[in-house]
């Protein structure tokens, strides 16, 4: 398409993309290798010698991957036969057609960062599935669990807040309900600070009570479309016929503390009758270190249900019940772990696009979703959000994201420049956030 801005890429030396490929990804790979190593005796106990051989094989495949990346070798096709292998290999062929210099090979530092970074996680998965009998091992699971346990105090505060709120929710005036909705939206936004990919796999837990920090964090919200979310959902509630469905879809991001914030918001949506159903989308394979898989989703709810803290346990039990009765629906789709921008979804995954069209509102959590929504391109900061979405409009949608990549659209004139002058790391520190809405006014 004429006039389409270039993709962010590692060829811009010193950029965040460059530093991620050069430093952060090798660090994540090293940590994954180390994790496999530390589980050696567990593999032996479970599978005997075969477990040890598998551990060695997975480690050697990951070391090879790290070496390919660090020496900027050509990106190679996947070799196993998983459901999406052909799609990945076709995508590589497409990337090769975009290379018009050198030997025509797509390389780590010259290809689009979005593609390269997704490819790393798919290759990590490849290394594991090629190493049976440990082929269902999630190299990131430990860190996801650690994040959850280290955030306990904040989780207790949040669950207590929710349970107190639910006691009075039916008597709240419209304005009070709106206030509570805004609070829990902001909790879910700041929950996105806790991702383990930005921190290179190191702990990134929520230590303090996030609710009491909301006022102080308000100035860090650069685009705030919360009012539009409220009008959309409160109108649905007012005009809804009895027994008709109001559906909010949440495209999940990180497990651990962030997932708790999303589930608290989802519980509030049902309890306040702003929605009658919530659908969640998670990842089919371990992804960007901390992203939620079905195992994480079920593990976290089970863990909360079994908690010795009354309100945490009450949340876990209620959430399990929402899933059992179908008011919460967890879905996954291979598209979420492909490298495509969302503008390609209608063509690449028409079934998923059609599913999203059934929602009254879709919340896209986190930074990677934002990169895929906007194509991870060098847009001007003032580019209107709908323009960057490039015809991706399955339903009214909102990005709920803390900024961790050098792409941002929809800002006021001068806003980006001002931030760049006063806060050099504003685009990537995770300190700033947006609620960026696209839908009817
Ligand atoms: O390297 C940092 C990073 O991997 C970004 O590239 C990526 O967008 C982000 O972390 C993941 O963040 P989130 O979990 O919010 O999608
Ligand atoms: Mg993530």
Feature tags:
441 residues; alpha/beta; Transcription Elongation Factor S-II, Chain A; 2 domains; seven-stranded mixed beta sheet; 7 strands; binds 6-O-phosphono-beta-D-fructofuranose; binds magnesium ion
Distance between the termini: 28 Å
* CATH architectural arrangement of the largest domain: 3-Layer(aba) Sandwich
- The total of helices stands at 18
The first-level CATH class of the largest domain is given as Alpha Beta
Average residue pLDDT: 95
Largest sheet, spatial ordering of strands? 1-7-6-5-2-3-4
Quantity of strands, as a count: 7
Order of secondary-structure elements:
HHHHHHHHHEHEHEHHEHHEHHEHE
Shape: globular
Helix content: 40-55%
Structural class: alpha/beta
C-alpha Rg (nearest Å): 22 Å
Count of spatially separate domains: 2
**How much β-strand is present in the residues?**
5-15%
Low-confidence stretches: none
The name of the CATH superfamily of the largest domain reads Uncharacterised protein PF01937, DUF89, domain 3
- For this structure, the quaternary state is single chain
Largest sheet: 7 strands, mixed
Characterize the structure shown.
By secondary structure, this protein is α/β, with parallel strands linked by helices. The protein has two domains: 16-129, Transcription Elongation Factor S-II, Chain A (Up-down Bundle), CATH 1.20.930.60; 141-438, Uncharacterised protein PF01937, DUF89, domain 3 (Rossmann fold), CATH 3.40.50.10880. The protein is 50% helix and 8% strand. The chain is built from 18 helices and seven strands. It has a seven-stranded mixed sheet with strand order 1-7-6-5-2-3-4, with helices on both faces. Strand 2, helix 11 (257-271) and strand 3 form a beta-alpha-beta unit. The mean pLDDT is 95. The structure holds 6-O-phosphono-beta-D-fructofuranose (F6P) and magnesium ion.
């Amino acid at each position: 398409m004429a006039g389409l801005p270039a993709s962010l890429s590692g060829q811009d030396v010193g950029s965040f993309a460059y530093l991620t490929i050069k430093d952060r990804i090798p660090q994540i790979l090293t940590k994954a290798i180390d994790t496999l190593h530390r589980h050696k005796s567990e593999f032996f106990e479970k599978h005997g010698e075969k477990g040890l051989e598998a551990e060695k094989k997975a480690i050697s495949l990951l070391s090879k991957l790290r070496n390919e990346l660090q020496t900027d070798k050509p990106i190679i096709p996947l070799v196993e036969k998983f459901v999406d292998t052909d799609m990945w290999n076709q995508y590589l062929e497409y990337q090769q057609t975009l290379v018009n210099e050198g030997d025509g090979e797509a390389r780590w530092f010259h290809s689009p960062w979005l593609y390269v970074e997704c490819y790393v996680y798919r290759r990590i998965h490849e290394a594991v599935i090629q190493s049976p009998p440990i082929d269902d091992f999630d190299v990131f699971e430990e860190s996801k669990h650690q994040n959850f346990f280290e955030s306990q105090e904040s989780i207790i505060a949040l669950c207590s807040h929710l349970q107190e709120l639910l006691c009075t929710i039916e008597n709240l005036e419209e304005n009070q309900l709106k206030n509570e909705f805004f609070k829990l939206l902001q909790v879910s936004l700041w929950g996105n600070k806790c991702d383990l990919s930005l921190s290179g796999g190191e702990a990134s837990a929520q230590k303090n009570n996030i609710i009491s920090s909301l006022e102080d964090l308000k100035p860090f919200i650069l685009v705030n479309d919360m009012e539009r979310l409220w009008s959309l959902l409160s109108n649905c509630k007012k005009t809804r016929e009895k027994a008709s469905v109001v559906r909010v879809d949440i495209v999940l991001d990180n497990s651990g503390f962030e997932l708790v914030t999303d589930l608290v918001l989802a519980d509030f949506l049902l309890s306040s009758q702003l929605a009658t159903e919530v659908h969640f989308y998670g990842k089919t394979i371990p992804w960007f270190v901390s992203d939620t898989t079905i195992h994480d989703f079920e593990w976290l709810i089970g863990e909360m249900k079994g908690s010795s803290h009354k309100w945490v346990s009450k949340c876990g039990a209620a959430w399990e019940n929402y899933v059992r009765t179908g008011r919460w629906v967890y879905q996954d789709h291979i598209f979420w772990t492909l490298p495509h921008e969302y503008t390609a979804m209608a063509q690449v995954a028409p079934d998923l696009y059609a599913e999203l069209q059934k929602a009254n509102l879709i919340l896209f959590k986190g930074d990677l979703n934002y990169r895929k929504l906007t194509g991870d391109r060098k847009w001007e900061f003032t580019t209107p959000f709908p323009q960057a979405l490039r015809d991706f409009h399955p339903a009214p949608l909102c990005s709920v994201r803390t900024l961790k990549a050098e792409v941002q659209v929809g800002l006021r004139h001068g806003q980006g420049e001002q931030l760049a002058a006063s806060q050099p790391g504003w685009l990537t520190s995770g300190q700033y956030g947006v609620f960026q809405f696209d839908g009817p006014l």
